[in-house]
Amino acid sequence: MLKTLNYNKKNSYKILEKFLNKRKLNQKNQTSQVSKIINNVKKNGDKAVLNYEIKFSKIKKKTNKIFFTNKEINIISKKIDKKIKKAIDLAYNRIKKFHSSQKFSSFKIKDEYKNELSYKYLSLEKVGVYVPGGTASYPSTVLMNCIPAIVAGVKNIYLTTPALDSKINPAIVYAAKKCGVKKIYKTGGAHSIAAFAYGTKNFEKVDKIVGPGNAFVACAKKEVFGDVGIDMVAGPSEVSLVADKFAEPDLVAADLIAQAEHDVNAQSILISDDRNLIKLVKLSLKKQLKKLPKKNIASRSLRNFGLAIFASNKKKILEIVNIIAPEHLELCTKYNSQIVRGVKNAGSIFLGKFSPEAIGDYIAGPNHVLPTSGSARFSSGLSVNDFLKRQSLIKITKTGIERLSSSVINLAKHENLDGHAYSVKIRLKKEN
Q1: Which are the contacts of 186, defined by CB distance < 8 A and separation ≥ 6?
Q2: Does the first or last residue of the chain, that is N or C, have fewer Cβ atoms within 10 Å of its Cβ?
Q3: Cα distance between residue 195 and residue 177, in whole Å
Q4: Do 259 and 334 contact (CB within 8 A), yes or no?
Q5: In the beta sheet, which residues pair with residue 123?
Q6: What is the mean pLDDT of residues 130-153?
Q7: Closest CA to 235 of 255, 256, 221, 252
Q8: Distance separating alpha carbons of residues 159 and 145, to the nearest angstrom
Q9: Segment 252-295, tens digit of pLDDT
C-alpha cells in the first residue's frame, strides 16, 4: 500500500523531490478553459453563471433563482440534526475565541523630530466565501472562512455553494446563518468565482474570495487575483506524520487514512526512525481500510501519493519535514519538543497521541484553511489578518523635513528622479 523510501541512501533527496512533484504535475492545468468561463461571465453576467451551473451540475430542471431567499434559509436551517447543531455551536465559539486573540491594533509613533508615523487597520467591506457542494459538503468550511472575517469586522459576507436544484445541506445553511452571511448563492465552479470577482446583477462584487474548491475553482481564483484578493491557491489536502517506536501503529494508520479519504490526490506521509513501526502501520492500514466507507478513495490516494520514509536520526527527520513543508504535521514521538524547535515549514502542527489532525479540522480553534503543496515555506493559514488592510499615515514636521531632506534629495538624484528631489527642495525654499 505505502511505498517506502530509505532516506539514508544516496540520492534520497532527489527521489523525495520527484515524489512530491508527481502530485503537483498530476493537478491538470485548466487555465485556457477557465479563462473562457471568466470572460463569458464578465460579458453575460447571471445568464452565463446559470448556463454553466446547469451544464456542469447536469441539472435537468432549469431555474432562474440564483440565491436562497431569507424565508428559504430560515426553513432549511431548522431542518438541521440536533447533534450537528450542537457541534456547530461549540465549534463556532471555540474558533471565534481563538481568532479574537489575533486582532491587530493600530499604532502611532513619534520620532526625534516629532514626525508622526502610524499604521491604521481597516476591515475589508465585502468577502465572498466558496463552499464546495456535492460529495464534499462541509459546514466546517463555512465556520473557518467566515469567523476570522467576522472578528476582523467585515460587515458583508456572501457565500456560494452548488445548489441550483435547491438541494443543500441544512448544516451549511445553519452555519452560514449563524455567521451572519448576507446571501447564499446556489452556484459553484469557476463561474461563481468570476461572478464574485466582477459582479453581476445578482452577485455582489467582493473585495476578497476565500474557501476551497476543485482544480477549476483553484485555477479561477488564481486567474482573478489582482482584480480581487484571494486567500490562497490550495491544492489537495496532505499530512506528514512523524512517529517513533513508542507510537501506536493503529493510531498512526488511522490518521493517515483520515487524510487519504479526502481525495484521491490527497497525500499521506509517514516519517519514522523505526523500521518495525513502519511495518506495523502498513499492516494496520490494510485492516482499517476494509471497514472504511470511502476505502476506494483512500486506497487510491495511499497507493499513488502515500509514502513511508525511514530516517535514522532527528536531523534527517527535520530535513524531510522542512522539504515537504506539509499542510498538517503530526508528531507522535518521545522527542516532540525537540522536533518542534527545528520545524520551519508546516501549516499546522499537532502534538501527541491525543491531537489528531481531525480535531483541528473541526473544533480545536485554529483555522483549518492552510497552505498546501509546499507553500508552507512562504505562507500561513487563514487568519484575521487576511481580512484586514493596513494604511500607513505619515505627518512630517518642519524640523523633520529640514533634517531629512538632504538624504531624500541625494537618494532621489541617485535614482535619476529629479522631480522627487525638487518636491522636497521647494518646501525648504518656501520656509526660508
Answers
A1: 53, 65, 66, 67, 68, 160, 161, 162, 163, 164, 166, 168
A2: C
A3: 22
A4: no
A5: 388
A6: 90
A7: 221
A8: 10
A9: 999 999 999 998 999 999 999 999 999 999 999 999 999 999 99
CB atoms within 10 A of CB 22: 12
The domain segmentation of the chain, as residue ranges, is 3-27+235-364, 31-105+122-230, 397-431
Q: Which residue has the higher pLDDT, 189 or 57?
A: 189
Cell numbers for 248: 501506536
Picking from 353, 354, 398, 406, the residue whose alpha carbon sits closest to that of residue 113 is: 398
Cα-Cα-Cα-Cα torsion 349, 350, 351, 354, nearest 10 degrees, comes to 180
- Cell reading at 313: 536520526
Q: Is the pLDDT of residue 399 over 70?
A: yes
Query: What's the CATH number of domain 3-27+235-364, 2.30.30.90, 3.40.50.1980, 3.90.550.10, 3.90.1150.10?
Result: 3.40.50.1980
In whole angstroms, give the CA distance from residue 4 to residue 281: 12
pLDDT at 400 over 90: yes
Q: Which residues are catalytic?
A: 327-328
Written as nine digits, the cell of 139 is 459546514
pLDDT in tens, 30-49: 788 999 999 999 999 999 99
* pTM: predicted TM-score of the whole model, two decimal places: 0.93
pLDDT level of residue 28 (50, 70, 90 thresholds): low
Which range is least confidently modeled, 3-7, 26-30, 82-86, 90-94? 26-30
Using CA of residue 17, residue 304, residue 278, residue 376, what is the dihedral sign?
positive
pLDDT of 26 reads 55
Query: Partners of 351 in the beta sheet?
Result: 331
| Architecture label for domain 31-105+122-230 | 3-Layer(aba) Sandwich (3.40)
Q: Which long-range contacts (CB under 8 A, 24 or more apart) does 375-383 make?
A: 375/232, 375/325, 376/325, 376/326, 376/327, 376/345, 376/346, 376/347, 377/325, 377/345, 379/232, 380/347, 381/347, 381/348, 382/144, 382/145, 382/148, 382/210, 382/231, 382/232, 383/99, 383/102, 383/148
